[in-house]
Every structure is written in structure tokens, then in C-alpha cells.
Write a structure and sequence with these properties.
The chain has about 140 residues and is mainly alpha-helical. It has a two-stranded antiparallel ribbon with strand order 1-2.
Length: about 140
Amino acid sequence: MIREKRTISNIAAELKRDKRTIAALISEANIEPVDSSGRYKRYYLCDVVSAMLNSKELDLQQERAKLAAKQSEKTSIQIDEMKGRLIDADEAERAWTKYVSSCRAKLLSIPTKLAADVVQIDNLQTAKDVLKKQIHEALTELASA
């Protein structure tokens, strides 16, 4: 293999990369110039290619594929939202909090409503039936809300 000496501009043109990208890569990889006679520094092309392969340089096609996937996901979410399949998380939290508070209030009101009735009942089964009836009424009311 011939070790070709090239300037940063030549390397950038050969590899279809920006000169600044190549210069940054050379700097990061600490590649020393092999010839600095004249106005420009020259580097071995194979050293720069090797550094590129070992670097974490982004692959444009890979990044475009990721972008396309994210855009597709965003579009899918927007469509689901427009069709009413999705709701806002804050809105859901407010609705759930309201429902739980309502449920709590209904359940806590049962002893107050039934205390006088249950005290007068001598039969255990009748007391259970009264309590059960009131709990079912509360649950039915909550379900219809």
C-alpha cells in the first residue's frame, strides 16, 4: 500500500468531508504531519482514514435514519392525539385526582349516613344488607359520574 501524503483540503475532498471536520479529527487523534515543507502540512491519508474509523464520528446515513424514525414516531403520536386515542398527561392526572377525591368523599360519608340506622338494627345480616346497599349506591353513583 502506498502511503500518500495529502493536505487537509485534499483529504477532505477525497473523503467527502468538510475541511474543519478533518482538521478536528487530525487534532483529536494527535496525527503528526509527515511533511510541512512549503505552506501546507501534509499527512498520510491512511492515518487519517484509520483515525476516522476509530473515531466516534457520526455516520450521516445512520443519523438520517434515526431522524426519520423520530419524525415518524412524532407523526404517529400526533395522529393518535387527533383521533382521540391519546390525552394530555396533566389532564389525565387532574381527572384521576378528581375521581379519587370524589370516591374518598363518598366512602367517608357512609358511616355518617348509616350510623343511626345501623345502631338500631339487632340482626347482623340486616346490618350487612344496609351497609352493602349504601356501598353499592355510592359505587353506582361514582361509576355514572
